[in-house]
Amino acid sequence: MSAVTLTYGILFYLATIVLIVGVVFKIIQYTTTPAPLKIATTPAPISMTGVVWRITKEVTIFASLFKSSKWTWIFGWMFHLALLLAFFRHLRYVMSPDFFLLPIISLNLVQAVGKYASFAMLAGLIGLFGRRMFVDRVRYISSPSDYLMLLLLFSIAGTGMLMVFVLPTDIIMLKAFVLSLYMQPFRFLPLPADVLVLTHLALVILLMLIFPVSKLLHAPGVFFSPTRNQVDNPREHRHIQGWTADDTATSKPV
């Protein structure tokens, strides 16, 4: 086993632990943080069914973003859709040969759509980067980490495209390495020594490490946003949180 293979194998284990523990910790924090006020953004649904439908629209078509900025919506939705397609394309590289979904994921249509979706991903990232650079009100609230995150995503997509269209790597060898990560713990199969492959994987590992402490946490966070997940019924029901209920019950008039 080469030093490069061992290093990347250990880094993937570390990054996976950080990613899972970090995201789970943040979800627990989101769940347990009290929301003392009814702050649903109007017009808000007045039933839980309406709340579910509202969040579904936010997750699938970015409904509020469409209303606020059409250009941002175009680039944002383009990037996220392309990212989803690329995700499905990459599934075949991490699936065991006997996994029942592998024939579907390996279809030529799925692979072709996922491959060319990378162009849409880059276009979306360029649009989002330009928005932060040239829109005054967005540039004012942007921090260096916002630009660096976009550059990281751009670099991951760019190196991936280079491996597909310019300098192909040994995909069979790469898949064997990935499968050995969870099928043969600490007995890693050789990793291709191509500089482009190592760069792409290093960028992915970096993304996994910083995901739990970055703004990318809006992925799970959208489900816990009180402006989106609250029923607009302050007149019908009093909004009392668990941390205030006991005080209300035990308080005595002065």
TL;DR?
This protein has 254 residues and is mainly alpha-helical. The protein is 69% helix and 0% strand.
The helical percent reads: 55-70%
How many DSSP H or I helices?
13
Encode the helix/strand succession as letters.
HHHHHHHHHHHHH
- N-C termini distance: 75 Å
Q: What is the β-strand count? A: 0
In terms of per-residue confidence, which ranges show pLDDT below 50 for 5 or more consecutive residues? 248-254
Percent strand equals under 5%
Shape: globular
| Backbone structural class | mainly alpha
Mean pLDDT: 87
The major beta sheet can be summarized as: none
Helices and strands, with pairings:
Elements: H1 3-32, H2 48-61, H3 63-68, H4 70-90, H5 102-105, H6 108-134, H7 136-141, H8 144-165, H9 171-183, H10 195-210, H11 218-221, H12 226-229, H13 242-250
Helix pairs in contact: 1-10, 4-6, 6-8, 8-10
Describe the structure.
Helix 1 runs parallel beside helix 10 (195-210). It contains 13 helices and no strands. It is globular, with a radius of gyration of 22 Å. Residues 248-254 have low confidence and may be disordered. Helix content is 69%, strand content 0%. It is mostly helical.
